[in-house]
Amino acid sequence: MRTTLTLDDDVAARLRQLQGFSSFKEAVNSVLRIGLEQLDCSVSTSPSPYKMQSVTLGAKIKNLDNIAEILDLAEADLHVLGRC
Length: 84
Description:
By secondary structure, the protein is an all-alpha fold. It is built from three helices and no strands.
């Protein structure tokens, strides 16, 4: 199939630098085949969605409007656990 393809200058330069191809056409076709195969593989083996594990905060925090109190409680837990 014959078509017109407009390449960015940097892409064309990289294709010209590739070794082992007898023509520019062969380089373009090979690189496109490799890219399309990678797209097919990435679509079929897409990772599962991220799952977040929930934790119970307990009855310590009764009022979520007081941010300073929440931070004090969180930092106190970190000190008790030896993380700070």
